[in-house]
Amino acid sequence: MKLLRFVLANLLFLSVNCLSFTQQEWMANELGSCPTIVSRADWHAKPPKGRTPLNTPVPYIILHHTDWDECFDFDTCAAMMRKIQDFHQQGRGWDDIGYNFCVGEDGRVYEGRGWDTVGAHAPWYNFHSIGICMMGNFDKKVPNRESINAVFSLIKCTVEKAKVMSNYTLYGHRQVRDTTCPGDDLFAEIQSWPHWIKRESGSCSTIVSRADWHAKPPKGRTPLKTPVPYVILHHTEGNECFDFDTCAATMRNLQNSHQQERGWDDIGYNFCVGEDGRIYEGRGWDTVGAHAPWYNLRSIGICMMGNFSKKYPNEESISAVYSLINCTFQRTKLMTNFTLYGHQQVSDTNCPGDYLFADMMLWPGWVSNGCMLSSAWLNFLTHQKRSKLNNRWDQEHTTHLLRKGRARNSHFSLQNKVYVESYLVRSSTSSGHRLSQGLSLWRYAVLAWLGTRYTLPTY
Ligand SMILES: [Zn+2]
Ligand SMILES: [Zn+2]
């Protein structure tokens, strides 16, 4: 039924004519003030099931269309907002309507999650963007002048309130994900709007260069052919570092040990990230790493400095990894459909540690290689949907993962089922409460027994 609704929602196509809006109209709007925003109460929103605060100002604005009917008056638009919220909360299992704001062709701005809550509209970008949707299908027509003016005025107001950086980047949804959103004609239209840029020219956060951490020169190098299809995540299994001096020293130690003890050309990883929130350049994007046999020529290896077998890395370091992957993606060093693996998925190792591995399973791009998602695992993820972990990453992605997992479940292998479930038991020893919600007791006991009997398969 949910699937049917989803399909139907995506089959609504309308077509009329085209308009075009220019810089002039934008300029005219620069003089206006914040638009009146129809509050959640005004459109009779249901309360959100949860929320994650958004760190502002964010660098991106992502524009969407709903791919549903247009609306030209308050009553219809408010009803449409309720319909979208229902679909996102019930159909997709998200906390709330996915967008931060929506705009109708009645020229009104409708509050979705607002400026201060992370949205669910664009994986990899939810934590760094304000998502604005225009209600309607704009594949074969451009939204009317009133609604475009309302978007301009909303963006201007968002800049004034310092919720988005003044040098923000505007993307259409299709620039950051494989989708036709916001529709062909609206997408053509926004390319003339201020701050719209091609994805390739997106910016990267500061990376501590080799010179900055006093790297020794590499003994040799092999050029990496990009874009590569994989990102492989590691931990160093050594000490954590929380400031520049300690992290830079850790980098030098890693390099020494890799060059001298292991006889490699250079530090093995392409990049490392410290809990000081900084990204440290290892071999960089253009040199083959030495971090995961069979995958070095086809991956970017990222290490998180520390041992994450019994604890999670801090938020700063996780968002640094997030921004690094994002930036790697934007620089087209990664294929658009890239896969994120933990080291243990490609070698016989515990790297990147149980906690970090459990965390990264919820990151966009992560897939279970061959190990299909078992029903216990799906239950676990379903429960995780309510947890902090998932909120930090991406509701939309988890839902996608769940759907993917269910679709694949018809042909999973027993070995992998045992692997995933035994992993689940191992990783839940410190968080049994999470597991207990997803599994009945007898099942837990059986899995615990399996977990002690079964060792990780090598891939
Ligand atoms: Zn979209
Ligand atoms: Zn590793």
TrEMBL record:
Keywords: Immunity, Signal. Residues 1-18 form the signal peptide. Residues 46-183, 216-353 form the N-acetylmuramoyl-L-alanine amidase domain. It holds the Pfam family Amidase_2. Residues 35-177, 205-347 form the Peptidoglycan recognition protein family domain. GO terms for biological process: immune system process; peptidoglycan catabolic process. Belongs to the N-acetylmuramoyl-L-alanine amidase 2 family. This is Peptidoglycan recognition protein 3. It comes from Holothuria leucospilota.
